[in-house]
Amino acid sequence: MKFYLIDDDRNILNILKLIITNRKLGTVCGTSLSGSDALEDVQTLAPDIIIVDLLMTDMDGISFVRKAGSLLPRTAFIMLSQVSSKDMIASAYEAGVEYYIQKPVNSVEVENVISKVSRQLSMQRTIRKMQHIFMDEMPAASPEPEREAPAAIASRTVLTNILQRLGISGDTGSRDIITAVEYLLEHDGQINDMTLSELCGRFSDSPKSMEQRIRRTANTGMVNLAHLGIEDYGNEIFTEYSNTLYNFEQVRREMDYIRGKSDRHGNVKIKNFLNALVVYSQNRQ
């Protein structure tokens, strides 16, 4: 991972650089004491992760993240600050910040946060890569029943754990989701050219009903995430799955709906949801 560091305190920059270098978290490709100067650098350097201070004289961190985020949509942002205001922290997350680190800087916390953000970026990149690789149509025939292998048991454990964390393991569609993802895992593919209805038709005499159960359950998961985000923007489950299983902008729209700020619900892209579950299962077996 490539890091770019921004803080108007040179000592903080040096401390962060030492933590990243000594703990082998990645490489620091640049630093800056100014948000305005940093905007020019990051467009050229294209860092994976930018760590930026909230309060700076020429440009505050939130303004920087908004501007840099539009230029570097695949870069992750971590914010530093002594400010503990919940409203300020919420504004930072809404601007596009992945995590928020309270000053004074603690090396253990910095390492933990960077590790989490790095895992999220790797997951997102793996999903995008697999979506480009597995574009061929899936086989028309279902495989013959076989004795369940250890890998299948492991993947089911991973899936069940994720659904539990989303609060949907007890929903009727959770079993359908696991069935669909296990099929995709067995065929080393993702649901791209195939429609969800066609996939459900491989397991059910009523594919439309199965599809509706999957959509309803996946949507419930997003609603649960939105409530978590409203209660605690830094919640680990919220920050991880709102950027992988779901689209963060859609989760935020659902949060606005719950708050009464919008009359539109967030939208769940079921194909992306299932594809992400495939990647989680493959990476954690």
UniProtKB/TrEMBL annotation:
Domain of life: Bacteria
Annotated keywords: Phosphoprotein
SUPFAM superfamilies: CheY-like
Function: May play the central regulatory role in sporulation. It may be an element of the effector pathway responsible for the activation of sporulation genes in response to nutritional stress. Spo0A may act in concert with spo0H (a sigma factor) to control the expression of some genes that are critical to the sporulation process.
Residue positions, PTM 4-aspartylphosphate: 53
The protein's name: Stage 0 sporulation protein A homolog
Lineage of producing organism: Bacteria, Bacillati, Bacillota, Clostridia, Lachnospirales
Source species of the chain: [Clostridium] hylemonae DSM 15053
Keyword match Phosphoprotein: yes
Keyword field contains Cytoplasm: no
